[in-house]
Amino acid sequence: MKDFSDGCQDGLPIGLGYFPVSFAFGILAAEAGLSWWQGTMISLFNLTSAGQFAGLTIMAAGGTLLEMAISQFVINLRYSLMSITLSQKVDSSVHGIFRYLFPYSVTDEIFGVSSARASKGKPVSYHYWRGLRVLPVVGWTLGTLTGALLGSVLPQDLMNAMSSMLYAMFIAIIIPVAKKDRPVLIAIILAVLLSCGFTFLPSAVPALAKLSISSGMAVIICAVVASLIAAALFPVKEEEESLADDAGRGEGRS
Amino acid sequence: MKLSDFFLYLLVMAGVTYLVRAVPFVLIRQKIKSRFLNSFLYYIPYTVLAAMTFPAIFFCTDSVIAAAIGAGVALVLSYFGQSLLVVAAASAAAIYLAGFIF
């Protein structure tokens, strides 16, 4: 049960950060003509932000099911990358049916927090994972429900500030490791430079704008390229991945 | 929208999203042996999160300056090892308050 309560605790900031984002989704869903329970069901079953916003647009426009499938695949493909990484980090308690129940809640934030736990040498068990996802799922689903029913009762400034919590959380995950592990810092800088390129270059270079790379795809390209370069330059020793980063990884690398 | 159409959309949407998450997770059961692949996967969490955060964090609210202050607060606090909740709450508070000025 320690794992479960650890998970709940780690999930609290995620749940809080999800609420305003999914609140905004609820408002949009209502504006698109969906009833409150329809928006809420979308949030409960998908548990993803960009994919849902794109899906809602396709529904509202009466798009085809193929369009829906392709949009979800492209925008959410980054979760595949996270699932591969997580498959190496979970412990033996994730077996049988749990293997199929586990992936439902792979999101950017849940992935980030559980990876941080694994890199500290603590187990990512099924109990931990269940605890970790409770508050994010509740926050995400309840946010949409509230948004769809109440509309814009919260000032936009406050909603923006609350949704920024998710970014701050990502910073809190990567910085302590980057501080101790120079190769991670270099990998992060590479990823940020690439990501800035995808954000700012298209407006300067019209040819790039024509490619119209989705934000989900841009994240995949940035992360894969930066990680490939880092892996080539700074290979990690086998035992290291599960060891505490706190122990300092300098001497372990050859 | 007809109710049946809604459920079809929902089924495709949730189905594809689940499969994208589940297929690699269910299929890969072995520990990956390749040192290069393991190194690659070691860096993935950090590069994914970094690429998602920057530069997007600067555009999360109307004022770029307020957002930059929030990002600065998050960077400094996490450098000094504060917990996720503290970093997230302090950064959000900074963005909200800075929004009144900038």
Q: Structurally, how many domains make up the residues of chain B?
A: 2
Low-confidence stretches of chain A: 241-254
Structural class of chain A: mainly alpha
For the biggest sheet of chain B, the summary is:
none
Task: Please tell me the overall pLDDT of chain B.
Answer: 90
> How many strand elements of chain B?
0
Number of strands of chain A: 0
Counted up, domains of chain A total 2
Instruction: Specify the oligomeric state.
Output: heterodimer
Average pLDDT level of chain A: 84
Q: Give the helix tally of chain A.
A: 13
Q: Any idea what the radius of gyration of chain B is?
A: 20 Å
Distance between the termini of chain A: 39 Å
How would you sum up the global shape of chain A? globular
Order of helices and strands of chain B: HHHH
Summarize the structure in words.
- The complex is a heterodimer of chains A (254) and B (102).
- With 254 residues, chain A is mostly helical.
- Chain A folds into two domains: 2-163, no CATH class; 181-254, no CATH class.
- Helices cover 74% and strands 0% of the residues of chain A.
- Chain A has helices at residues 2-31, 36-46, 49-60, 65-76, 78-87, 98-101, 108-119, 126-150, 156-163, 165-180, 182-204, 206-211, 215-233.
- In chain A, helix 1 packs parallel to helix 3 (49-60) and helix 1 packs antiparallel against helix 9.
- The radius of gyration of chain A is 19 Å and the shape is globular.
- Mean pLDDT of chain A is 84; it is low at 241-254.
- Helices cover 76% and strands 0% of the residues of chain B.
- Chain B contains four helices and no strands.
- In chain B, helix 3 (64-79) runs antiparallel to helix 4.
- The longest helix of chain B is centred in the first third of the chain and has 25 residues, at 3-27.
- Chain B has 102 residues and is mainly α.
- Chain B folds into two domains: 1-30; 34-101, no CATH class.
- Classes of the chains: A mainly alpha (254), B mainly alpha (102).
- At the A-B interface, helix 1, helix 2, helix 3, helix 4 and helix 5 of A face helix 1, helix 2, helix 3 and helix 4 of B.
